[in-house]
Structure prediction request, 471 residues.
Amino acid sequence: MGAVRFARMILTLPVGAGLEAFTGRERELIAWLWSECVLKSRKREGRPFTLHSRYLQANYGRNYARFVQYLLNIQAVRLKPYANGHFYFDKHSRRFVLAACPGGVQEVEISERTKAAQLRKRGAQAAELCAAIEGGVHLLNVWPQLSIDADAANAYLDGLERRLNESGEIDLRPSRKGAASPRERLAFRRLSVSWFGFNGLSFNERTGRVYSPLTNLPRDLRPFLRLKGGGPLCLVDIRNSQPFVLAAMYAAATNDKGPLKAAAAGSFYEVVNARRPEMSRDEVKLDVLRSIYDSRLTPKCEGGLALVEAFPAFWDWVCRERSKAGPHLAIRMQKVEADWVLNVACALAKGGRFIASIHDAFLIDEARRDEVERALSAAGVARWGVGPSFGFESIFLGEGVRRAAPHLPSEGQNAERCLK
Amino acid sequence: MFEVNAHGVEWVLIGAGRAFVRAVIDGMEIEGVVSALEAERMRPVDLLELN
Prediction:
């Protein structure tokens, strides 16, 4: 019962004259379009938002113009002219603002069929994903199997907000150097939850990475994810993934396999850390990444200097590569990593078996852990002659979540099983 | 909808012209809050510097 209850998607539909002309499925699409307008308007803080006719046609079918006209007729949205007084830009874009919606709204439950179809074609970039990655269509097809239990996630966030209001404390790991305040991080989490059901996968050509609501989702909200069919979820991640890829590129160019061996054993950061034992592993990791992503020849941070001491020839190569024309080394590294990881993901998604990637990690059914690790290792061996080591995380409600929302399940138990 | 800028940094407006920026690098979630204009141009190294 739990899975069915939490998988339901209920949206609001503005009511007004002419609604009776639409079929049930068309009403679902109008509700979806209306929700998208509300979210776009919220994101733009009430300022006009743009809808492009090609985007509308791709997502709402050939009848999209009727849906937009209905929303205009009942004054749920208003057209906002451009500065030159025209309502169209480029013959395809129009600007809208939310209006009073005088007829009120009613709730509409979105059928599984509509939801799956909408999530498959979400975003014009879905087509780019299919074109860029062989088998990208498999990733798109399995994506709708993942949803978030918005009720439970919001209950958890309510708990955090209450605690923040009462004591000024929050059960979230503080962002380093306070780069985002607790309230800002809470606001971001609310958005992550409310957007989750509305977005699919998109592809970034520059980095080669696939982005999705899952890559947007902060770690502490992962326990609220639900897999259709209800299997326990887990996360398999590649340990030292970026040093591994970078060291593999280095080994291919120079035949020096020292850094690659350390990264493949999952101890790259530990080797660097040994040069600065007074620092924590996390501090060293941040400094190492900062040094690689930066363009300085001599790192300005202690962890970066430790990297130079631990692997001097590797660092020289990194500096030489960064000075070459074209995309920055970090972007090339991300592209190599994404190519490796996504090809494995696409192969594993064939046949409709769920898998989703968070750049260097996979969210999968726990039963498939060995299969995923074997496939990633084999792909690594085929490319570079060596496979990486892996980290594993079972998705369950941890200490912070239980303190904030004590009615939710206990540690060690998968949220899906407990909420049933 | 969340945006991904040309450098692969994800961002979303959270109010008052401020944007929440976020990137996942080697499993590490790095986040911060900057102006919307900065968010569009932000590189991962800038985000790492924020942290």
